[in-house]
Amino acid sequence: MLPGGGHRLAASIHGQVLVGTAHGRMGLFDLRGGKPEDPLFVYKGFAGAVRDAVVHPKHPLVFSVSLDRFLRVHHLTSRKLLYKEYMKSRLNCLLVRENLADIMPSIKKLAKRRIVTTEPEPMKEQKLDVNPKISDEDWKTLTE
Predict the structure, then answer these.
(1) What is the pLDDT of residues 40-76, one digit of tens each?
(2) Helix, strand, or coil here: 105?
(3) 3-state SS assignment for residue 94
(4) What is the CATH number of domain 8-118?
(5) CA distance linking residue 144 with residue 135, whole number of Å
(6) Which intervals of the chain are annotated as region Disordered (predicted)?
(7) The whole model's pTM is what?
(8) CA–CA distance, 47 with 45 (Å, rounded to integer)
(9) How far apart are CA 18 and CA 41, in angstroms?
(10) Where are the chain's structural domains?
């Protein structure tokens, strides 16, 4: 199904198919046996419909774009998000070059900078005065 129904397909190696949905989900399915309705892998992080997905022919990379305007690069089998970039316009399709040798070092460098999961610093506990004393002058300025 395409535009109205909203499934995007991308072929992978070894009888596997990558499917992106209009509900912002993407999964890798094996069509050779077992239950094809159960995905091998599920890729997360989408906030809008997956518009296009491409599995690289030589590298284990999945390129995808969605309506949330992000270009994402996932590792095919580990499902790890390697790269994420906000696009200024909505992309409907992708064209990925076969030879990535000249841009792989910069992708790895950018991925280290952009995909950083740092824990927020814990907030320091502050003891609040439950019954603060307000002077008459301050009270007048607050109520005027």
Answers:
(1) 888 888 888 888 888 888 888 889 998 899 988 888 8
(2) helix
(3) coil
(4) 2.130.10.10
(5) 15
(6) 122-144
(7) 0.64
(8) 7
(9) 9
(10) 8-118
